[in-house]
Structure formats: structure tokens, C-alpha cells
């Protein structure tokens, strides 16, 4: 059932959350988490990353699941530095002029993954519009090194590669990952606000092009909700993703990293996430993870059902 704003009504559970005196939408109980104290294991993992000059999106993007993932010896590695050439107003990653590509990064990454005992690794990156291949060669080298570890599964979460899409996909296809992920992020109506410099149709073409070149590799995408999108728009995006060969889906709540980033327009309830999950499965998605704290790479090893 929907109201005039195309908002799911769930009796007795959903209520309108009011803005506080700082004009920030108050968090409902289901989004509040009790962060555990940083353990010796977390500090050890941070030291390993620092000693090897490696970055994780867990730290750079202020992920709410950092403590849990680090305590479980899992992480999503961010290659090609920690400075992005885009200025997306939802993202906590630093923006500016990136550093020179570290040629030793793929080898060091492989060594650290082996040392940490990881069996499923996710690799992502900042946008590198300054590079002729958008950073695709670095992705390919990382995959090549990592796949030397026999029992390791590799998922990559790539940027859109803008005007270098075909060049980038051809490079990555030489050493394809076990899962290819590119987040569509939100609905096309809000792209100019949320993803300046990106293009909705281009992102769909990227997913489609990779799938056609690598039909046996599952493709994955995700959205962050709560930025002003309507339910009908979300459903349309899910259909577009399926039409372009995407079989794995994640839907999570957008959380404002700081007062300098886009504000949360709405907190999506667990029951609303369940609604989107049912709709996604009915469309033919094989793997669907929906929930307030779901992230594209959170529990990624559980998202791959073979």
C-alpha cells in the first residue's frame, strides 16, 4: 500500500521521524548500532595496512560495519590511492589530485591478503579520470596476483571508467574476477545531485558490456536509499539492472558522513527493505541483500551463492 508520496505504509511500525534543532533527521532505533571497542585485532590489521601503504574503503568511507568486518579479518581494499577525482556529495573519500599509481600495490595487496588469511577479497578504487584506462590495468594486475591463491575468491567494485569503458572492460576481461560489481547508487532523477560527473545509462552499459564479454561471471550492483527517491523509481532501476544482466543486488540505507555531505531525506524501515527484497526476487535476481546497514561489500562472501 502506498500514500501520495509513493511511500510504503506498514501498520504500527513506520512513523515519521522529526528533524532536531540542528535540522538533522533523527535516527530510528533500527539504524542505531553500538560500536564495539577497537580490539587488539583491529589495531593489528590497521598496522598491517599502514605498513604496506594500503587503504580500505572501510576506513576511508567511514563504514558503520568497520569493527565487525575487521574483527572477522575481512576488508574491502581500495586501490589506486585514497584521493578521488570526482566530488560526489554523499561520499567521505577525499577529493583532489591523486598521487602517482603505485606499481608495487598489486603484489603488496596479494601478500597482505595471504597474511590476513582472507578467502574472499573485495577490491574497489577511487575514480581515476586522470588515467588513460581509468585504472583498469591496476585492477587487472591485482586480480592476476590474487588468483594465484588457489582458494581465494575475488570481487571487484569498479568505478564507471567514464569515456574509457570499453578499453577498461577489455583489460579486466583478460583476468576476470569471480564477481564484477558496479554500483548504480540511486535513481536517474537524482544523478545530477548525487553523482555529478556520472551517467545512469553509461553505468547500465558498463554492466551490460562486461556481462556480454564474460557471461559466466555474475554481475552485481547496489543502491543507497533515503536520498529522496520514490519507490516507483527504485523498482524501475531494479528492472533496468535485470534487463542488463545483473543478478546480484544490494540495497542499503544512506548515512550522512558529516554535516558537509548530503542530508538523509528518509530512513527506510526494515519492513520496507523486505518489500524491495521480495520485488527483486520476483524479477529474477538470484542474490539479494537488503537492509539498513547493508553495504555492497558487507558480508560479500555470503552474497555469492554458487
Percent range for β-strand residues: 5-15%
Order of strands in the sheet with the most strands?
1-2-5-6-7-8-9-10
Instruction: Tell me the span between the first and last alpha carbons.
Output: 35 Å
Shape, principal axes of CA atoms: globular
Helix content: 25-40%
Helix-strand category: alpha/beta
Q: How many H/I helices?
A: 11
- Kindly provide the radius of gyration, computed on alpha-carbon positions and rounded to a whole number of angstroms: 19 Å
Q: Low-confidence stretches at least 5 residues in length (pLDDT < 50)?
A: 1-21
Number of strands: 10
Order of helices and strands: HEHHEEEHEHEHEHHEHEHEH
Explained architecture:
- With 306 residues, this protein is an alpha/beta fold.
- The chain has one domain (29-303): TIM Barrel, CATH 3.20.20.70.
- Helices cover 33% and strands 13% of the residues.
- It has eleven helices and ten strands.
- The strands form two sheets. An eight-stranded mixed beta sheet has the order 1-2-5-6-7-8-9-10. The chain has a two-stranded parallel ribbon with strand order 3-4.
- Strand 9 (248-253), helix 10 and strand 10 (287-290) form a beta-alpha-beta unit.
- Helix 5 (136-146) packs parallel to helix 6.
- The longest helix has 14 residues, at 200-213.
- 38% of the residues are buried.
- Residues 1-21 have low confidence and may be disordered.
Amino acid at each position: 500500500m502506498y500514500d501520495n508520496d509513493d511511500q510504503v505504509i506498514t501498520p504500527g511500525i513506520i512513523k515519521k521521524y522529526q528533524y532536531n534543532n540542528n535540522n538533522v533527521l533523527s535516527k530510528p532505533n533500527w539504524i542505531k548500532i553500538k560500536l564495539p571497542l577497537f580490539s587488539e585485532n583491529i589495531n593489528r590489521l590497521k598496522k598491517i595496512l599502514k605498513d604496506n601503504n594500503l587503504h580500505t574503503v572501510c576506513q576511508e568511507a567511514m563504514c558503520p560495519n568497520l569493527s565487525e568486518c575487521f574483527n572477522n579479518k575481512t576488508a574491502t581494499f581500495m586501490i589506486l590511492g585514497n584521493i578521488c577525482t570526482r566530488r560526489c556529495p554523499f561520499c567521505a573519500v577525499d577529493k583532489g589530485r591523486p598521487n602517482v599509481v603505485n606499481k608495487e600495490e598489486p603484489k603488496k595487496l596479494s601478500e597482505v591478503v595471504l597474511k590476513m588469511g582472507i578467502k574472499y577479497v573485495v577490491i574497489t578504487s577511487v575514480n581515476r579520470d586522470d588515467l588513460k584506462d581509468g585504472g583498469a590495468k591496476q585492477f587487472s594486475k591485482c586480480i592476476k596476483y590474487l588468483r594465484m591463491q588457489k582458494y581465494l575468491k575475488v570481487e571487484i567494485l569498479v568505478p564507471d571508467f567514464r569515456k574509457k569503458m570499453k578499453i577498461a572492460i577489455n583489460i579486466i576481461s583478460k583476468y576476470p574476477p569471480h564477481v564484477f560489481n558496479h554500483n548504480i547508487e540511486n535513481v536517474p532523477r537524482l544523478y545530477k545531485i548525487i553523482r555529478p560527473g556520472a551517467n545512469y545509462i553509461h553505468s547500465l552499459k558498463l554492466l551490460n558490456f562486461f556481462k556480454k564479454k564474460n557471461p559466466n561471471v555474475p554481475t552485481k550492483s547496489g543502491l543507497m536509499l533515503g536520498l529522496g527517491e520514490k519507490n516507483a523509481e527504485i523498482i524501475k532501476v531494479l528492472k533496468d539492472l535485470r534487463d542488463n544482466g545483473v543478478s546480484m543486488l544490494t540495497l542499503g540505507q544512506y548515512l550522512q558522513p558529516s554535516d558537509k555531505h548530503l542530508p538523509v531525506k528518509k530512513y527506510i524501515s526494515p519492513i520496507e527493505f523486505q518489500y524491495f527484497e521480495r520485488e527483486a526476487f520476483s524479477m529474477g535476481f538470484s542474490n539479494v541483500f537488503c537492509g539498513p546497514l547493508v553495504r555492497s561489500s558487507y558480508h560479500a562472501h555470503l552474497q555469492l551463492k554458487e
